[in-house]
Amino acid sequence: MSVKCHTWLPFLGQEIPADLTAPADIARFELEQGGVKASLTVEPAMGEGWQIAKTEDGYALRGGESGVLYGAYQLLMAKQTGAEPQAESAPRYSLRMLNCWDNADGSVERGYAGRSLFFEGGKFDYDPARMRQLARMLASVGLNVLCINNVNVRFPADQLVNTWLPELAELAAIFRPFGVRLMVSIDYSMPMRYGVDTADPLDEDVAQWWKDQAEKVYKVVPDLAGFLVKADSEGRPGPFTYGRNHAEGANMLARALKPHGGVLVWRCFVYNCQQDWRDLTTDRPKAAYEHYAYLDGQFEDNVILQIKNGPFDFQVREPVSPLLYAMPGTVKAIEFQLAQEYTGQQIDIYAMPPMWKEIFDELPADNVQAIAAVTNLGRDDNFTGHPFAAANLFAYGCLAWNPEIVPEEVIRLWAKLTYALPADQEDALVQLLMGSRRTYEKYTSPLGLGWMIYPHHHYGPNPGGYEYTPWGTYHKADRNAVGIDRTAGGTGYLLQYPEELQAKYATPENCPDELKLFYHRLRYDYVMADGRTLIQRIYDDHFEGLAETQAMAEVLAGIDLPSPDREVAAERMHRQLHNAREWCDIINTFFHRLSGVEDAQGRTIYL
Ligand code: GCV
User: Fold this and answer.
1) 313, 342, 471: residue to mutate for ligand 1 pocket, most atoms within 8 A of CB
2) What residues are labeled active site?
3) Mean model confidence pLDDT for the chain
4) For 438-453, how does the pLDDT look when each residue is reduced to its tens digit (9 = 90+)?
5) 148, 316, 370, 483 from 401: Cα distances, Å
6) Which residue puts its alpha carbon closest to atom 12 of ligand 1?
7) Does the beta carbon of 313 sit less than 6 angstroms from any atom of ligand 1?
């Protein structure tokens, strides 16, 4: 078989027989073909956890039903890397979710790896063998919930919980043996297409309609993880239409799911996307906290509020969302985005683990009870478009299992499993990935500003692209200053945080450089801690970001990746170089034209 795709499971070529239907059977199959001798004991009470002990001629693996499968993959990865397996482990979060933004027509919203893995032409359309490969990859890093359709639910995807149930059941049966349960996004207004004249959550007919529908769903897919909902957000229907709050809206659905053990994952990405840019009283990052914090304690216990990691929308640098520090009486999930919508679109290299570490360094892991990420998957041979984007999927699984992972260790493990490179080349690849996020940050929008991108497709520099739009994402650069004052004296956003965090960001002097322009409006001649002016720092970062990308290209050329990853990575690096140059020159020119300040080092800025 020709190698279409290198994954972190080096034995991918050998398909898992379709008749294996229990995680323990898969575990045995995988261990046998991976050449690992191990006895297996399933102890259901151990849940997803596992223990590994060395025996005379191999290993004894004990674990819960899917625990044994997770343990088996640990043994296989340890063998592959020549390491000793860990003795025991259990996941920090019981729901480790992936959200696909796949549409029924086969397109993927913010997808950069080809078309949908599940749908085409308005119906299910998938390769069962490929599904098993995917399930295997997810199980190998402990991911256990897969939401298969876009949160923007458009007909006919709403039929997933109706006429498409038999097909949904078939797909669920493929993933089930791997410990992966399916989830579906639903359309809040769906009852209105079935004879109910409202979607008001307090209307009895609406509640009854959803109860009946949930019955039908769970009859066919008894282990469906639940529903995912985007309501009152970017034009989606929701309870606001009826003057109801989001606790009222979510609870109605949650009650329909409860008898079946399902969860209702309710996204908190709610803000005014029709903002008047002249309106200085509205500050988009404040929106989620304003909509939800006061509702703490009012949600059913099977509601999970899913909150994006930052208050905007997956920018290269954002503070941790203040809502993640609030609502102690509510179950919360943090949402990341593996799809590189704003972070290079799987053309530019952008390894996320260092960013996640910064987030969890500031956010106690216990502040959330579940974790979700928008996938970077698609129908491309290698699943993720850029072969290195797979490192983010791999690392996300590891993070969801244990938020205390060490970024470099996880990236190295992925590199080791995926490519058996000589030690110096492996080091080079790991360092390249480790620095990639910081480099991307330097050549794109400066110091926490974000959003200087082309509207709609979100790739490439357009410093004025979002000014004067209704989206609430402004930098307000003028000839003297740039940024927005979000402190107590400004929009007041900072007041949504616990006091110790308020203190950390309150003054430009205390505020870390990377977020200075998110929290403060600063003059170009503001002097940073290292003595450079703000404008000089902007110029320097951009020239450095471009130079670092050029250095990355050279390093990449020296790594003997196997084909086709070598060719794909090289072609994408070519595009990344172009992108980095565009960003560097356009952003520097933009600020030079406004400020009239020369670069202290006399480098070329195009006027
Ligand atoms: C699925 C951003 C993206 C949208 C996405 C939305 C969301 O606005 O640009 O494509 O819609 O986030 O997270 O719901």
Assistant:
1) 313
2) 234, 313, 341
3) 97
4) 999 999 999 999 999 9
5) 21, 24, 10, 37
6) 313
7) yes
